[in-house]
């Protein structure tokens, strides 16, 4: 069936994989990618599909209420997949207000605009909010986050995402807006901005620079390959039950230090370096304030109800990721030149 779908944040890391999947997989859909192109947005991520007839890019900011209302009136979207966000915990610690504006106010602008054009006739309509497992707070050594775990966000980033999740649910409960939400664990893979752990380490190893690790590297995260997340998002958008939440995870927990040691071994092999060379670059730095100890996701609802499961083992995913970064040096260099350098120095070199 013909549909016009808005994807917000489609020039970012996960959004670009979702846009590509939808544009290639559903030629009958018209995909509108709305993105403000902040430091994290990069249209290079979508070079391969930019001329497809069912794809259009619109530059714009979800915090601009007027603009959002006009956009919705113009395109009369049938569905919204909302990924636009400020997404980096460290940046939320130094500048929380941008996170409040984009993640909370921006989300409410989209909810209001959807309500307005759908005018309470919700048949065939869907508002899909993409969120994070960080809203659940931190786990001890055992246990998993499920869809009924109480929210307990600890950083300005996770608090802003928790707030937007609550608002999306409130619009469902109050106005009947047909929403669905998913909360996913840490993603990795091609096109991730090199402020996040894995691409940052790949870039530093390649350039023989120290790899900064917070504290003792004991924090535990669950990692999922980004294309597996995009596949889950596609499935939930098509088949998820209205008003429901789905947790998405890789069942793949690593301490940061073990993950980086594994990555170092792959990098030594790919760069033809003596085994152990990259590991020497590991440097422990002062821990992040309020650093959550462990996140782990129980995705059995998504697996049992919709039949999703991760397709890649971590070792395979990390090798694919390294190959992508080493094969796309220009993409990386365009990013790490300029303002990134100042940010990097502030975050890691003056600690
Ligand atoms: P990202 O930072 O790579 O991309 C975010 C995109 O949103 C960028 O293209 C940016 O330009 C755009 N954007 C930011 N502010 C905007 C605004 N005001 N108006 C319009 N566009 C704006 O983020 P990501 O890692 O791809 O994450 C995408 C979504 O998935 C986020 O909502 C995030 O909370 C969620 N998520 C991320 C992860 C992860 O591991 N990266 C895990 C779970 C959930």
Give me some keywords for this one.
12 helices; 351 residues; Rossmann fold; seven-stranded parallel beta sheet; three-stranded mixed beta sheet; UDP-galactose 4-epimerase, domain 1; 2 domains; single chain; alpha/beta; binds nicotinamide-adenine-dinucleotide
Molecular structure report:
By secondary structure, this protein is of the alpha/beta class. It is 43% helix and 17% strand. It has helices spanning 13-25, 65-75, 89-94, 96-118, 156-175, 197-206, 226-239, 256-270, 300-306, 314-327, 329-336, 339-349; strands at 3-8, 29-35, 55-59, 79-82, 126-132, 179-184, 186-188, 211-214, 220-225, 245-248, 253-255, 282-285. The strands form 3 sheets. Strands 3-2-1-4-5-6-10 form a 7-stranded parallel β-sheet, sandwiched between helices. The chain has a 3-stranded mixed β-sheet with strand order 7-9-11. A two-stranded parallel ribbon has the order 8-12. Strand 1, helix 1 and strand 2 (29-35) form a beta-alpha-beta unit. Helix 2 (65-75) runs parallel beside helix 4 (96-118), helix 6 packs parallel to helix 8 and helix 8 crosses helix 10 (314-327). The radius of gyration is 20 Å and the shape is globular. The relative contact order is 0.13. Nicotinamide-adenine-dinucleotide (NAD) is lined by residues 8-9, 11-15, 35-38, 40-41, 61-63, 83-87, 102, 106, 130-132, 161, 184, 186-187, 193. Belongs to the NAD(P)-dependent epimerase/dehydratase family. dTDP-glucose dehydratase subfamily. Its cofactor is NAD(+).
